[in-house]
Amino acid sequence: MNAKVSYLSPASQQPVLDDILSTTRVFLLEWQQGNLKPLPTLYESIERHAKFLDSITKRMATQALRMEAELHASGLEDIVDALEDIGEDPELLFIAQETINKVLSNLTIQISGVKNASTELSALSAPNASRDEARLFRQQMELETTSVALKAEIDAESSKIEALHTALKALEAIDIEVKFDGLIPTPEQLAALAVPGGQIALLSEAAAQALKNLEKTLGQLSADLNYSRLQAQRRQLTLGLRTLQRDLAANSRTLATCRQQLKALENVPRLVAQRKACLIALNALSMALGSFYNLLKNAKYKGIEDLRAIDAFLKTLLAYQRSMIKQISNAF
């Protein structure tokens, strides 16, 4: 028997499933967390990948378990021992041949399953975040611009309300309703009201200054403006300010959601890279299993020593299958 049947390189003796299993885990986690749910097309792509990868790892485990059971029950070692005791026996050699054929048949199914998994994964469109990312960046810029504009408008309206509040308090202090019948006094009227050195002089000066500041903020005051209209204007501005504040709060919430979605999109390139690594790993696994198949199929078993070598080879394959089962089991 060719020596290569009884010897496999260390790389072939240990299956490397890390990229397959880690890809399955990250897609399942991203899907289950639902951070990209507000982006339906992208989320559905991730969901398809997660469910598919989960199904192929389960199929791989099932196929490895089937192979393990077949190899464990092969009885080739017992056949070799019997041949050593009684010499070459056509019936025992036929059973040995049947045993090897069963292993080859199951290996064919296993290899086909891995190849199909690779083909089907390749057929799934990779998650593409570019369209959502571009839209969200535009939305973020628009929301940030709106936020700046609303804050400026709120500051301006707040200044108007503050100026009105100060003016109204100053006018109340000089008893505007009694002394001026609720009409806004002119600077001359305020000056005439003041008695030098008296308390009313200070109040008149404060009222005059408050009205000047109000005029700077609101523009020129009309001649028929009265105390009641100033109060009504303050109420109207206060209501408008509350509306602006609600608009800003809503805009801020939308902006926070937008930024959150952009943050979630940062995971997509990693998912795409993992997907690529998974495809490479599936192809490598297919080749590794294929090497087992080719070595076993091309093995020559003309005598007991050849069968001993094949039995050792099947034990290596059994260890390989058990390693697959263990890795998949430990991954989830």
Q: Note poorly predicted spans.
A: 1-11
Determine the N-to-C terminus distance. 41 Å
Helix content bin? over 70%
Bulk shape: rod-shaped
Mean pLDDT: 88
* Rg (C-alpha, Å): 42 Å
Largest sheet: none
The succession of helices and strands, N to C, reads HHHHHHHHHHHH
> How large a portion of the residues is in β-strands, by DSSP E?
under 5%
What's the β-strand tally? 0
- In DSSP terms (H or I, runs of 4 or more residues), the helix count works out at 12
Structural class: mainly alpha
Number of domains: 2
Protein name: Binary cytotoxin component
Keywords: Coiled coil
InterPro entries: XaxB-like (IPR047760)
Organism: Pseudomonas guariconensis
Report on the structure:
- This protein is an all-alpha fold.
- The protein folds into two domains: 3-134 and 268-331; 140-261, no CATH class.
- The chain contains twelve helices and no strands.
- The protein starts with 9 loop residues before the first helix and ends with a helix.
- Residues 204-247 form a coiled coil.
- This is Binary cytotoxin component.
- InterPro entries: XaxB-like.
Topology:
Elements: H1 10-13, H2 18-33, H3 40-72, H4 76-86, H5 90-123, H6 130-173, H7 176-179, H8 187-193, H9 199-218, H10 227-265, H11 268-297, H12 304-331
Helix pairs in contact: 2-3, 2-11, 3-5, 3-12, 4-5, 4-12, 5-11, 6-9, 6-10, 8-9
